[in-house]
Amino acid sequence: MNTNDLKSREAGADTIPVSFKVIGTGSGAADIIEKVESFGYDCVGCVVAESPADCIPADEDKMAIIVARDNEDVANEIAKNYHDADVLTIGLVYGADFSCYDSVATDARREDFPEIIKSLLQPIVTQGYICYDFNDLCTILHNSRFFKTLTTAGKSVEDAVVNMQKNMENVVVQNMESLSAHLYFNRERQPAITMNDMSHLSNMLSELPKSVNAIWSVNTDDTLPDDMIRFTTILSGKGL
Fold it and tell me: Is the peptide bond before 191 cis (omega within 30 degrees of 0)?
């Protein structure tokens, strides 16, 4: 199993990459964009577009997440503009033209779109103890064709990991090329997470095929109950 070098982000040294866009088009996109805006992430711009002219790639753009459940032609044209500009281009689009995207969500329900977007953005725009940055996300999603996100929770790291393993029982791991795993906890949590707790995550990752590139992070989220651990994974692969 390949893992990236662990990187600790020093207090006050937060260098979030410049610009991420979430672009919705077609009917029903406005409420999804409104929900994403409510997350309050800095460096994330949210746009509802009626045509490709409404959102032109800028030099500072690093990632564009395109959201549509209809009006796919417009969504695909917007995506192509960003993809051609070497922006990491992610699709939550029914009827996606895969040549216009680095990766497209598979098995994604419209009502889950905001939480899927949150799973992609949160680890790169919030403070982490074991940090995960935009380059790590690129490693997972660049030219991966398909991705999916899974989220579980538990009263402990062990519970959250066991629940994730159950969720992954329907995933054909041989078709998976990359996985990133993200643990979230409230900073007021007692008792604090220890390295022994992290062994449950380490054991889970060690059971993956050696061909899977695995990256992980540990993050705080003070919106969580102080007795709860949330665990999200991003899985990707051309055969996923």
Answer: yes
Phi and psi at 138, nearest 5°, equal: -60, -40
Q: Which two tokens stand for residue 234?
A: 């991003």
- Cα–Cα distance for residue pair 183/216, rounded to 1 Å: 8
What backbone torsions phi and psi does residue 81 show, to the nearest 5 degrees?
Answer: -60, -40
- For 156, residues 6+ apart whose C-beta sits below 8 A from its C-beta are 197, 229
User: How would you label 163-176 residue by residue, b for 16+ Cβ within 10 Å and e otherwise?
Assistant: bbeeebeebebeeb
Whole-angstrom Cα distance, residue 41 to residue 38?
8
At which residue do the structure tokens 């996606």 appear?
96
With contact defined as beta carbons under 8 Å apart, do 167 and 184 qualify? no
Taking alpha carbons only, the member of 222, 215, 238 closest to residue 189 is 222
pTM of the model: 0.89
Over residues 166-219, the pLDDT tens digits come to 999 988 888 899 999 999 999 888 777 888 889 999 999 999 999 999 999 999
What are the two backbone dihedrals, phi and then psi, of residue 106, each rounded to the nearest 5 degrees? -110, 145
The amino acid occupying position 65 is I
Q: How far apart are CA 154 and CA 145, in angstroms?
A: 31
pLDDT in tens, 73-91: 999 999 999 999 999 999 9
